[in-house]
Specification:
This protein is an alpha/beta fold. It has 2 domains: 140 residues, Vaccinia Virus protein VP39 (Rossmann fold); 32 residues, no CATH class. The protein has 8 helices and 5 strands. Strands 3-2-1-4-5 form a 5-stranded parallel beta sheet. α4 packs parallel to α5. The radius of gyration is 17 Å and the shape is globular.
Length: 189
């Protein structure tokens, strides 16, 4: 899924924006925070808030983030509900490979708008996610993505690929590129 390549770019964006200055980061759908620890802890990151719905991922995130002297808050919560609970503003809001898990366009729009509202005035919003082709149904998207996983993820065993396929079919609701653009164009900020 090109995590290392993506985070290498994110590191450059953040470094060019903040240099050595400290900054606060909100990570929506943080997973295990492996890439945060690997790519961003050597920047000015001094406060990290990660949100995810997986106990297992958050356990690993806690281990990964404990390696560095960065104030960390991890929330096991629905993404949108968690934003209502967080009183901080952030210099960076990151939403990577996470918003497509919300089923409806309205849920995605609400979450993205609330995420942008958590930014400080000069903050940056970093977003990357899955994209459904304009001419494919959700079922066709699932088939294409699962085929890509099976064809390219050589180190993953059959049992794990079956679990990933099941996860995709039950949890992935991407938008087309135009759908994502529509959400951002309707943003109040």
């Amino acid at each position: 899924m090109f995590h290392s390549e993506i985070f290498s770019k994110i590191q450059k964006i953040i470094s060019s924006k903040f240099g050595e200055k400290s900054y606060k980061l909100l990570d929506i759908g943080c997973g295990d925070a492996y890439c945060i620890e690997k790519f961003l802890t050597n920047t000015g990151l001094n406060y990290y808030c990660g949100v995810d719905k997986s106990d297992k991922a958050l356990f690993l995130a806690e281990k990964n983030m404990s390696k560095d002297n960065i104030k960390t808050l991890l929330l096991n919560s629905d993404f949108t509900e968690s934003l209502d609970k967080i009183n901080d503003d952030f210099d960076v809001v990151l939403a990577g490979y996470s918003i497509h898990h919300l089923e409806s366009f309205e849920e995605k729009t609400t979450l993205l708008h609330k995420s942008i509202e958590k930014l400080q005035n000069d903050g940056i919003f970093v977003f990357y996610d899955l994209i459904q082709k304009d001419d494919e149904s959700l079922e066709q998207y699932h088939e294409r993505y699962i085929k890509n996983c099976k064809d390219n993820w050589e180190s993953i065993g059959v049992k794990e690929l079956d679990q990933i396929s099941d996860h995709i079919k039950k949890n992935d609701y991407p938008l087309t590129l135009q759908g994502w653009k529509n959400i951002f164009e309707s943003s109040p900020g």
